[in-house]
Amino acid sequence: MGEEVDRVEFTRADRTAFRNQVHRNLDAFARMLREARFAPDRPMTGIEIELNLVDEKCDPAFKNSEVLSAIEDDAFQTELGQFNIEINVPPGQIDGIGLDTMESNIRDSLNAAEEKAARTGSSMVVVGILPTLLTEHIHREALSTNPRYALLNDQIFAARGEDVQIGIDGIERLQVTADSIVPEAACTSTQFHLQVTPEAFPRYWNAAQAISGVQLAVGANSPFLFGKELLRETRIALFEQAADTRTHELKTQGVRPRVWFGERWITSIFDLFEENSRYYPALLPVTSDEDPIAVLDRGDTPALSELRLHNGTIYRWNRPVYDVVREKPHLRVENRVLPAGPTVVDTIANGAFYFGLVRALADSERPIWSQMSFSAAEENFHEAARHGIDAEVFWPGVGTARATELVLRRLLPLASRGLDAWGVDAAVRDRLLGIIEQRCLTNRNGASWQADEFHRLYTKGSHGRRDALRGMLHRYRDHMHENTPVHEWPVD
């Protein structure tokens, strides 16, 4: 959500004041863009990884407060559900051996945290959707105790006016009704942040949108939800439905959802923040005392708190971020496409593929978004969510092709050139992109491994469904701790 909030009720006057303040923030932001007030371009990235907590049976452990108290590290924070926590990886350089260093630091942090979490009878699993999470675990009491989550829940349901209806048709079919936003907590993701200049932002955002489908195809890791095998990246459909504030009638009228791929390529980051103010009512209309124009007039940097808070309640798969660090404003593309896991090395390989590919496409003389309709990019995204490593996607100059073939023949060489442009060490580049290559050659990612291992235990074995999911997750967790890339995980 971006900001802490402590209000429990909002008046009509609150909403009017918030809307007015968002518009004033937009005026200030437009002026900052005109006056070139942003930090210079640096190849910096930050990563957020959401984690699940499980007990000794690999069932959800509702202990995030206890676990965070045991860990005692500010890098770890609460998430929506009591069975979730998040690690925020400090920003680091992409160039040189920066990605190797980031991998090592994340592993060290997670291993240290895992030892402390064990004292509470819990362990951490890095996975897109916890396979052992069942409908019996989804109730309002499962929300984290931080008041902001209860407030967000109440505001979403006040806007919706009815219970959440989740319906997903995949390999199996799921129909679930929920009286809280806790199903959203099942969605655990990896978020890559890339700092860019205002001038470069639209190129990087457009490039990120164009490759979102391919990212999902090779990185899918969420095939199960509430005991059902659904889509290869079920997290996408679940998040779209669980965080939807629209009634059926508003959907029919074409009102935009809060979890949104978008509808067009952009020419400025301002386009996205302006869409936020134009299309979306406030969920959390908390205003500050700041006058951003007055702050600019005296030569300081405004926080733009209302713009940021509002942006934090609109869940674009590639989201714009305005932030201020050490009184210097900067802009980031937040890539929210991928699930968590399966391992740290797989996560960093996903990051290398993303960073390299968006750099190459952003630098291209003939932009990919000038050759490809926005609707084609969106269709690729949902096709990849459904079929994962087996998805077929559209690409200019190629037509419709297997995502794996597209990656091997076209996109890996582009990603390699992009990492060279960032100044990434050649050995680091080859190791990480080699993991993506092997996933494509073996047709194995996290989702396909989970499904194959489940069917080995359930369809071909003697395990009941729940025990098969637990058994699969036990093996998943063992491989995860070994940090072996998922394409090397056996199914036997």
TrEMBL record:
Gene3D superfamilies the UniProt entry points to: 3.30.590.20
The keyword Secreted belongs to this UniProt entry's keyword annotation: no
Molecular function, one GO term: ligase activity, forming carbon-nitrogen bonds
Keyword terms, alphabetized: Ligase
A Pfam entry, by short name: GCS2
Record carries keyword Ligase: yes
Domain of life, per lineage: Bacteria
Catalyses which reaction(s): L-cysteine + L-glutamate + ATP = gamma-L-glutamyl-L-cysteine + ADP + phosphate + H(+)
Name of the protein in question: Glutamate--cysteine ligase
Native source species: Kribbella capetownensis
